Amino acid sequence: MIKDIGNFVGRYYQVLGWISLAGILADLILNERLHIDLTFLLWFWAGSHLRRHNPTARRWTLGMSGAGLGLLALAYVYALAAGTEKMTVHWGSAIKNPSLAQVAAILAVFAVIIGTPCALLLTRRAKEEFSSPTATC
To answer: Which of 9, 22, 47, 130 would staple 14 via disulfide (CB 3.0–4.6 Å)?
Structure first.
């Protein structure tokens, strides 16, 4: 059982921020291209404020996570409707013309990565943690 959901999810997002930075560096070293993705800044911001039990950060995180999950669902619906023949999926390297199963597997991984902290932040215990008088704004 997780004792402090805000701290756990905050650390989770900070780890995602470091992974995002490592991915930028790995792309630079391995593929000799500079692909700057500023998402790591959002991960660090969310992580820092969630660890301090900021209720506004919780709401923003839930909103952005919900939007991300919605985009993943739309991507899958698009793959179902339009097919995957002309798609390119970037997962470490580019996968051209992926199968529907490959698209579904990659989207499922991202759904778990995004959905897990979202589900934790929706629990009653998290709502109590973020509404307590010790929560900072």
So the answer is: 47
Q: What is the DSSP string of 17-31?
A: HHHHHHHHHHHHHHH
Give tens-digit pLDDT for 98-108.
999 999 999 99
Instruction: Please name the helix (run of DSSP H) or strand (run of DSSP E) that holds residue 90, with its range, or none.
Output: strand 88-91
**Separation between Cα atoms, residue 100 and residue 106, nearest integer Å:** 10
Q: Is the pTM of this model over 0.90?
A: no
Domain boundaries, the chain: 5-131
The amino acid at residue 26 is A
Parallel, antiparallel or unpaired: strands 88-91 and 93-96: antiparallel
